[in-house]
Structure formats: C-alpha cells, structure tokens
Amino acid sequence: PPARPLAGRSAIVTSGPTHEPIDPVRYIANRSSGRQGHAIAEALRDAGASVTLVSGPVSLPDPDGMVVRHVETAGQMLGAVEAALPADVAVFVAAVADWRVATESSRKIKKTGEGAPALALAENPDILATIGHHAERPGLVIGFAAETDDLLENARSKLARKGADAILANDVSPAGGVMGGADNTIRLVTAEGVEDWPTLAKSAAAKRLAAWIAARLGRKGSA
Ligand code: C5P
C-alpha cells in the first residue's frame, strides 16, 4: 500500500476529556488521558492527512504537524469541530461530559455549614451525533463506545442514533486497565458487521484505524 494513502485528505479528531465548570475552581469531568485520541491524530497525519486535533485538557504535548485547538467544555469542543469543517473524515475519541452545570457560578461556592449545595445539570450537545447528522457531514464519521456492559448492543445502537459509519467499541471494565493504560482491545462495528481486533498498543490501534480509513475512503481522485 502507498506510504501516504491519506495525502490530500482532511481529518478532524477529538481527544481528551471536557471540563464543565461549576465555579472558578471546580469542574465536572470524565476520565480520559487523551492517549488514544492523540495517537489517532498522529496516525492520520503519518498517513498523509491534514489533521485538526480538537483536544480537551490533557497533560500530553501537542503533536507536531497538525493544527491543535485547545478547548475546555463540550460547547467549545463542538464549536471548534464545526469551525474545522468541511473534512473527509472525523473521528470522535473525546470523553465528552454528558452534563454541564446549568448555571455556572462566577464566584467560588462557599461552604455554609448548612449542608451541600444542589447542582442543577443541563445536557451537553452530543458532538458526534451533531456532526453525524450535519449539513456538512464528513464522508466518514467514526465514534467510540467505551462500555462496561452489553458492548455490541450499545455500539450498534450508537451507530444508528449518532449517524456514524463505524463505532470502535472497547471494554473499559476496570479489570482491563484500558482507561489511562497503553493498550486497547477494539471491536470495530459497522452496518456490515463486527471486526474483532487483537489487543494492541494504542499507537498500533491508531495505525490500524488509519489504514482502515484509507481503505474505506479510497485514493483521492480515484473514486
Ligand atoms: O454515548 P457515548 O458517550 O457512549 O458515545 C461515545 C461516542 O460519542 C464517542 O465517540 C464520543 O467522543 C462521542 N460523544 C460526543 N459528544 C458527547 C458524548 C459523546 O461526541 N456529548
């Protein structure tokens, strides 16, 4: 296969968690190191794509050779993704917080000695679902499903509901050590069926995904 099968193609990748502020010092977040998302952005770059990486707060360095947009909240992440359209492929790896605090306090919430404050939550936008049904939808839209139970069933329902072409399902039960770890065991779910990948280093899983994307898109201009 060609060394740079994604030359001339553009890609958007989301990575990391989002932080949803409660007040100036506190936030709600998901667990995510950003390792898998950043590795996918790097693999797409290495395959020749022009990559925009939209990253929530992570402790990883910005990868070279791509545009990196830093965001904090889900709302900002959606805005940065939409600003990066159009693209040939989008891969949604970020662990986006499902909820934000309905009304962020501009001041630090004080302990009153009269019990804990009640936090009203509001639903965040689903970035994958928004882009999966977008007027400028990329030709290939890929999401992740990190599950502890009913992996395939949940992945299949996400495919349809979110308008994705593929869902990479992985088991994040604590015993597997996927969260923050170096390896990932992926089942790639499409409308056509399920492809079971062996346990791979996150960088190797990323390379395999980049190759899958290249095969799926075909050579630029040859379609
Ligand atoms: O529904 P669930 O959070 O399990 O879906 C996971 C997939 O959806 C991932 O690809 C994730 O990046 C994406 N997602 C998103 N915006 C959200 C929630 C999830 O893009 N608000």
TrEMBL record:
Q: Which reaction does it catalyse?
A: (R)-4'-phosphopantothenate + L-cysteine + CTP = N-[(R)-4-phosphopantothenoyl]-L-cysteine + CMP + diphosphate + H(+); N-[(R)-4-phosphopantothenoyl]-L-cysteine + H(+) = (R)-4'-phosphopantetheine + CO2
On cofactor binding, the record's note says: Binds 1 FMN per subunit.
| GO CC annotations on file | phosphopantothenoylcysteine decarboxylase complex
Protein origin, superkingdom:
Bacteria
The biological pathway it contributes to is: Cofactor biosynthesis; coenzyme A biosynthesis; CoA from (R)-pantothenate: step 2/5; Cofactor biosynthesis; coenzyme A biosynthesis; CoA from (R)-pantothenate: step 3/5
Example of a GO MF term:
FMN binding
Name the cofactor(s): Mg(2+); FMN
Task: Return the EC number.
Answer: 4.1.1.36, 6.3.2.5
Amino-acid positions noted as binding CTP in the UniProt annotation, renumbered to this chain: 98, 108, 125-128, 144, 158, 162
Q: Could you give a single Gene Ontology term from the biological process aspect?
A: coenzyme A biosynthetic process
Q: Where is the segment annotated Phosphopantothenate--cysteine ligase?
A: 11-223
Q: Where is the DNA/pantothenate metabolism flavoprotein C-terminal domain?
A: 6-215
Keyword vocabulary terms for this entry: Decarboxylase, Flavoprotein, FMN, Ligase, Lyase, Magnesium, Metal-binding, Multifunctional enzyme
Described function: Catalyzes two sequential steps in the biosynthesis of coenzyme A. In the first step cysteine is conjugated to 4'-phosphopantothenate to form 4-phosphopantothenoylcysteine. In the second step the latter compound is decarboxylated to form 4'-phosphopantotheine. Catalyzes two steps in the biosynthesis of coenzyme A. In the first step cysteine is conjugated to 4'-phosphopantothenate to form 4-phosphopantothenoylcysteine, in the latter compound is decarboxylated to form 4'-phosphopantotheine.
State the family it belongs to.
In the C-terminal section; belongs to the PPC synthetase family.
- Name under which the protein is recorded: Coenzyme A biosynthesis bifunctional protein CoaBC
Q: Which organism is it from?
A: Jiella endophytica
Instruction: State which gene encodes it.
Output: coaBC
Parent-protein start and end of this portion: 184 to 406 of 406
